[in-house]
Amino acid sequence: MRARHTGHAWPAVALRVQLPQSVWGVPGSIVNSAAPVQLDDGTIIRVLQASKAAAAAGQMVESDQLLARLASQAPNHPAVLNELGVLMLERRAAEQAHALFVRATSADPRHPALWANLASSLKALGRRAEEMDAIEKALQLEPRHLSALLQKGAYLEESGDVVGSLKQLDQAVQVAPDNADALADAGRVRFIVAGQVPSPDAQSQLVTSARTLLDRAVQANPDHAEAHFYRAVLLLDGFKEVDGAVADFQRYLVLAPNGPFATQARNALAQSLERAPGSGTVPP
Q1: pTM over 0.85
Q2: Degrees (nearest 5) of the Cα angle 185, 242, 233?
């Protein structure tokens, strides 16, 4: 199932986007924007909403057809361009997505979501310095922009600044206290920071608050696979609660059997079960 980001904007330049064969039924089909049709904003937004609804329902061919037709009719509309850029990112066409988001920010430089999307494409291309520039631009426009806060937190963590990362993630939780992504990442990074502070009291406080955040993440979205994995690690390493960790490792493997932490989860689960016989089984 495809989930698209929201946003607006894209510059007024003729657009040629390679879309999958399912859109037209002919290999190599191309949407050509040389002769756009004038559509009002309301019509464009309604078509985009219909495309998203079709995608959410698993009707990918219909969703692509709606978007392809709209791209040929209104290729320079900001919202259309944003949707196409996100679609390119989802299909791992980072270069195409980047070109589209560059055009988007040129057309509407005041929209933070476009800069956040541009940052995503730059990350996919490994252009880290430019990625941060785009994130900072989004936050200059909207300091409480959730996606940009999460992106900056991830960037700082990957750069080795986990304390700085935690500050951004805590701010993201303040902005969206029920957002499972923000809660899960804030809890995970808080547990990492706990292992780096010398004070036992500070460590205890950080570990306890990390658990609270991860509990809230699971409550906000019981199907958030990573939240279950992060909490399992915390319960096992921070609280020595093997049964709780086993339950969360198992839940992660049910939700994401081929997820990025699947091997770690299976290994940790097997080791946990060796220490606590009879507390569960390893999912296939």
Answers
A1: no
A2: 20
Per-residue pLDDT reduced to its tens digit, 67-99: 999 988 888 887 888 889 999 999 999 999 999
